[in-house]
Every structure is written in structure tokens, then in C-alpha cells.
Amino acid sequence: MTATVVVTGLGVAAPNGLGAEDYWNAVLRGVSGIDRLTRFDPTPYPATLAGEITGFDASASLPGRLLPQTDRMTQLALVGADCAFADAGVRPAELPEYDMGVVTASSSGGFEFGQNELRNLWAKGNEYVSAYQSFAWFYAVNSGQISIRNGMRGPSGVVVSDQAGGLDAVAQARRQIRKGTPLMMSGGIDASLCPWGWAALITSGRLSTGVDPATAYLPFDGRAAGHVPGEGGALLVLEDAEAALTRAAPHIYGEVAGYGATFDPAPGSGREPGLRAAIERALEDAGTRPAEVDVVFADAAALPELDRVEVEAITAVFGPRGVPVTAPKTTTGRLYSGAAALDLATALLAMRDDVIPPTTGVRLAEDYDIDLVTGAPRLLAPLRTALVLARGQGGFNSAVLVREFRGHRG
Amino acid sequence: MSNTRFTVDDLKRILSEGSGEPEGVGLREDTVDTEFTEIGYDSLALLETNSRIEREYGLRLDEELLETTTTPRALIRLVNDQLTSA
């Protein structure tokens, strides 16, 4: 089964824009959502900047019964799923329950909820721990709550592979569509900007300790010294292309045409990291030649060694300066399980509008031979094919190729 | 019911604090005989509610009795019986 799978709806929650259009306008104008943390006082911590979502009011968008049982990441995900359905012109209540499934990515679960309940446990006693802690922290909770709220009883699950997860989840959703489920909700939305989550993120050793929001996260720059974390991500409605055409879906943003995933060799083995092979597998899966790719959305770790690995993988496949490369996540920070899903949404919007959003604030390091789009957006018509790369800490490499859908309408 | 110390309003407040406001009318004087699931509270909401009642009123509610307590009136009666016998 190799049915064509298309994206028909986008739901975006990002530090520089709630909703796909607000976010897209911000990205094109280079507006950043990175600033000093306000959710808690970051003064005692080595890292103090983050991409926070502001102006999100869960109680305005969600039923009262859901509020005490959901972490912030789940509240954002539920609203993101609502937006994606609305964008797709789908009313889930009108579809057969077993024709819809949910596969999301998660990196660490609901940290803020967990922190509050752990505080109740040690400060007051176990009888003060919410019964909802049983699932509110859990990796699969976003998939579960989206499934319950929208009556989606088809194949569902969660993928946990750090920042690669956003792509791995979409690939799993594509598999389920090819096995016969006509519609899947997929992607990832993450949010762990609370003291406990922050302490956990700091242990990665990958966070920027910069205090200037304009220069703290500079992938592919000689000044690269770690990333700024952010919250948010994207949820996408994926459908079997025939089904989408039959119901006259209002948008077909593009086809999820290729996927490749690899795992890095053990550190110190001297073997090549797996990113290049992931790219090649995604191209092969899509039946696409490197010369046909119009833009690469980079993982953009902003650590010199990891940036070099990514530059080498891209130049090995596409040649030196062989393809435009961009990393608009410089305006949001790295969103962990939400990052690659948001990059996919961004790539699809770039294809819609024939424009590559810029990597903000970065001066390309002299020894990186890639065509990095910096400064201003770059018009590129037609922009038909985009490759999104993502790496998760621990050795995960994933690549997804999206391209313009050229099927027939009506 | 002169010895009633646990009222509909108490239960309504505890349900709301622990599990949120349901869609629809929720718990009122005229829905005390409606099943909890019908007014928007599932088994986990009841688990949370019982835990809150226990710690607020210093009780241990009998788990076997709780399993057969499916309406607000029955739960209010169970709590008041325990308060009276305590």
C-alpha cells in the first residue's frame, strides 16, 4: 500500500504566533518570540532565555472539565488540534470514529503538571496528589486527549524520540493511512518551561547561556554556543489524497512524499553520523533526486560539532551550496517534540507562498559551505519540494520530504 | 436532616475544584438523583472527589460502598453517615 498522503490542515502554536497565519507572518518578518523567561524567575539558572507562548487562555477555548486534568502542553495541543480540524474543514463528530487516529510526538510529557503534584506530595502528603497525575504527565497524553475530545478511535499512539519525534510521528501517521485509516492527526506540541522542566533541559549541556535574545541561538554561526528552548509546535491533519479530493478539502498543502530515519553509531566509533543516510532514504522513498529539492529546513542544533555534522550531511547529498538551507526556528527556539512538526508546517506554508523564510540573526561561519538563507525571505517560484531535517538527543536522525500535490481535483 | 453537615453545595464546590465545571447543568438540587456520569463526572473525577472529601473532612470512605455510590444524593448520604458515626 503506497497511497498518497497529503496535509489538509495546520494548527500552530508558537512563541511568535498563535495560529498558522500569525506565526507565518512573524517568521517572514523575522519577528522572534525569544526573550527572558517570565513564567518563573530564571535568575538562579545558567540559562535565562526561552521562547514562551504569550496570550494563550486555555479556559477561553476548552471545556472546564478538561482544565484540572491537563498540562499546559496538552491544553495547547487540544486547541492546536481544533485549529487544524477547522483549517481542514473537517468536523470530526461527523466522521466514523474508527476512520480517524492520532499519533503525536512527545519528548518529556507534562512537566508543569508533574511538578505541581510532586510539590503536593512532598509538601502536603500523598492524599493531596491529584488523581489526574495518573495520566496528565504521560508521554501519550496529548494523543489520548485529542482522541477523546474528537471521538477519534482509529489507530493511535505516541513517538518519543526527542526532537526527531515530530517527523517520526508524521511518518507513523502516514503508515496508518496507507494501512487504511483515511484521516490522522499528527505532529507535536511541547511545553516544559517550568523550574523542573528547566532543570531537566539544562542537564543536556546544550542550552545557550546567552542573555541577549538576538544572539543567544545562532546555528551555523561561528558564535554558536547552544540553543534556546521554546514551547509550542504544530498539529497537522493528514489524509489519504483520494479521500481529501472526494470530500473537496479546502486546502491540500502538500504531499508527505518521503521519510527516512537512522540512528547514530555509538560515540567514539569513528563511523559517520546517520543524518546523511536519513536524507538519502527520504529522497529515495519519495523518488526524488537531490536537484529537485528546493529548500532544506535544518535541524540547527547551534553547537559547533553538531552544526558541522549537519553541514557535512547536506553538502554530501546536495553538493556545496547546492540547495537553499534555512532554520526559522531561530525565532522560536528549539521546541523539542514540537519543533519538526512546526518546521513541516512552515515548509508547507513556504511552498504555498513560494518564499523561503530566513534564519534570523546568523552570520554563516566561513567554513560552512551551505547556501543559508539569512536576513530577508527569499522568493523562489515555484517552490515545490522541501526537505525537513530533525535530530533528537541520543542519536535520532529523521528527514521528511514534502512536495506539491499534483493530483487531480474533482 | 438536621445533622447534615455535608451539603449539595459542598459537593458541587469539591467537584468543581478537583475536576472542573462540566458542560450542561452539572450538579444542582434537581440533579442529585442523576448518575454522576450523566452530569459530566467520570470515575476518575469521583476518585479525585472522594480523595478531597476525605482530606477536608478527615474521613476514610469505605471503598466497597463507594463503588455502589453512583449519584450525588447517595454520596452525600454516605459522607453524612460517616460524619455522624465518627
From TrEMBL, chain A:
The keyword Acyltransferase applies. Keywords: Acyltransferase, Transferase. SUPFAM superfamilies: Thiolase-like (SSF53901). Residues 2-404 form the Ketosynthase family 3 (KS3) domain. Coiled coil: none annotated. It comes from the Bacteria. Pfam families: ketoacyl-synt, Ketoacyl-synt_C. InterPro entries: Beta-ketoacyl_synthase, Ketoacyl_synth_C, Ketoacyl_synth_N, PKS_Beta-ketoAc_synthase_dom, Thiolase-like. The keyword RNA-binding does not apply. Belongs to the thiolase-like superfamily. Beta-ketoacyl-ACP synthases family. This is Act minimal PKS chain-length factor (CLF/KS beta). It comes from Actinokineospora diospyrosa.
From TrEMBL, chain B:
InterPro entries: ACP-like_sf, PP-bd_ACP. Residues 2-83 form the Carrier domain. It comes from the Bacteria. SUPFAM superfamilies: ACP-like. Gene3D superfamilies: ACP-like. Pfam families: PP-binding. This is Act minimal PKS acyl carrier protein. It comes from Actinokineospora diospyrosa.
